[in-house]
Structure formats: C-alpha cells, structure tokens
Specification:
With 201 residues, the protein is mainly alpha-helical. It is built from nine helices and no strands. α3 runs antiparallel to α4, α3 (40-66) packs antiparallel against α7 and α3 packs across α8 (152-173). The radius of gyration is 18 Å and the shape is globular.
Length: 201
C-alpha cells in the first residue's frame, strides 16, 4: 500500500483498483469452487456490510498514506480488543478479568507507542486507523449476531460487490483517477489487490 501511495496513487484509486481486481479473483474462485447460496436476508445483510467494509478499507489506506505503516497497522489492530469489549457490552460474549486486564495493558501500550513518536504522527492518520478499526468491529459484531453459520466466502463476495460499487461510483462522481506513476507502484498495487483477496480464500 505504502509503495503504491508513494508512487503517486491516491487512496480512492487504490481502493477502487483493489476492489475490482479482488472481485475478479473471487469471481474466478467461486466459479471453480461453487459455494452454497445465501438466503435473501443474508445476501442483503452482506451487501450492507460492504458499506462498512468500504469504510474499513478506505480509512485504513488513508491512515497508511498519512502516517508510518507500523503505527497505522498497530493502531488499526486494536480492533480485536474493541470487538471483545463491545461484544461483552452487548451481551454477545463474556469478558473475564484477565481479558479486561489484557485490554487495558494493550491500550496503554498503544498510547505509549503513539506518544513515543509525536513529531512523526498526524492526528488524522491515527483517527483514520481507529475509525477503520471501528468499522471492522461493526462488521464482526453484525456478522456474529446475524450471519452465524453462513458461508463466509459468500458473505465476502457480496460485501466486496457493494464496497467496490461504492468505490467505482465515488471515483466516477468525482472524476478521480490518480494511479501510480511508476511501474513499481503498479506492481505493488496489483500484488496488493491479488494478495489480499487470495488471503481470504
């Protein structure tokens, strides 16, 4: 992501290309290895999750664009902790005292790490990474509450369809096309798009 962004691409173009290429890979995979169809309800929920997924991907790439990659990723990866706390608060899961202590220590560690590099940080990058984490938490909790036992690959397919449609629509509406200016940037974008999708498979 950072290589592509440093090569002159903007976040909307990166997320749009990533979505289109990812959908192509997933489409081929689902044709080769068909999965059970979703119910209409599960399909609509999955399409709705795509809106959150679009926010998750866009905000994470925005954070990577603005701040150092390790800090963006570490900040984003508070989502398992937030998920556990939110699941406990909503009654989906129970939290033990050990889990609560681990969450507090992890948040303090994140605060310490972020505070260690105040001159290298842009508040917008931290906020974007945290917002991406919140989108991820919402996706996980909604999936857990409404789609338990549903085929995960089909959920991913429909979520990617709606998120990619949003990215393409935003790019067309804003006449936005700012691809990488170098071959290395394009290579990184293609590898990123294919690797993330094949990681799901």
């Amino acid at each position: 992501s950072k290589v592509t962004l440093k090569a002159g691409a903007d976040v909307l173009t990166v997320t749009t290309v990533r979505g289109v290429l990812g959908l192509a890979v997933l489409f081929v995979w689902l044709r080769l290895y068909p999965r059970p169809a979703l119910t209409p309800r599960a399909t609509w929920i999955s399409l709705g999750l795509g809106v959150l997924f679009a926010g998750n991907v866009f905000l994470l790439f925005k954070a990577i664009e603005v701040i150092e990659v390790p800090i963006a990723i570490l900040t984003y990866f508070v989502y398992p902790l937030i998920t556990g706390l939110a699941a406990a608060a909503t009654g989906l899961e129970k939290i033990t005292w050990r889990g609560a202590v681990a969450a507090v220590v992890a948040f303090l560690g994140l605060a310490l790490m972020i505070g260690a590099h105040p001159t290298a940080l842009a508040v917008a990058g931290i906020v974007a990474a945290l917002a991406a984490a919140v989108c991820r938490v919402a996706i996980l909790l909604i999936t857990r509450a409404t789609l338990l036992g549903t085929d995960a690959l089909q959920i991913t397919w429909y979520s990617m369809v709606s998120s990619t449609v949003l990215f393409v629509a935003a790019a067309v509406a804003t006449l936005n096309w700012q691809p990488p200016a170098t071959l290395a940037g394009w290579a990184a974008l293609i590898v990123l798009s294919v690797a993330i999708t094949t990681g799901i498979l």
